[in-house]
Amino acid sequence: MFVLIIRRISLHGDQCGDAEAIDIGTQPKDFSIALSSPELVLVSIDSGVVMLRGTKVVSTINLEFTVSASIVSPDGSEAIIGGQDGKLHIYSISGDTLVEEAVLEKHRGAVSVIRYSPDFSMFASGDVNREAVVWDRASRDVKLKNMLYHTARINCLAWSPDSSRIATGSLDTCVIVYEIDQPVSSRSTIKGAHLGGVYGLVFTDEYSLVSSGEDAFIRVWKITPP
């Protein structure tokens, strides 16, 4: 049995609630929650995705490609699913199923991570071939390209709260910060951020970035404004 564990955490104490196990039938690879509709959860599996409403599995959707990354939009209306073939598939969510709207081709390696911008006007994707791409969500055109400054796979992405910059973390131990409205050559690079690779990134404000890595450290960085 392969299960997803959901545990409720109290906001008024240091105790976690009881855990609830949900059998999804196969090994989960990743999951994403619709933040403004938190009952909707999308779980990635090799053959497709599993959709949950609350703690109930409502559909298992098999796709014609091997899934490597996925994200559900904050309002639960859209999902973007990346494949081992480097393609990004954009779906509208209709009830408990997916309707394919577009396929985007830019990556030359398996998609490793996808993240929406906080203002929902863009999304970014990274791949195992060290490239990141920023897309305009409305037009589905590339907004920022040639983000090829890592030397190994991209493990994680993070947007600043004002959607003006994006950070990428890689197996190459570095973090790179790009300004969305500036050429990629004006990037800022944090070399050797984490021994063994960077695996987690989050902005706490426009110029503060938290990273975690294989070295078991969490570090806080101050980004110098351009």
From TrEMBL:
One of its GO terms (cellular component) is cortical actin cytoskeleton. One of its GO terms (molecular function) is actin filament binding. This is Actin-interacting protein 1-2. Keywords: Repeat, WD repeat. WD repeats lie at residues 104-136, 147-188, 191-226. It comes from the Eukaryota. The keyword Membrane does not apply.
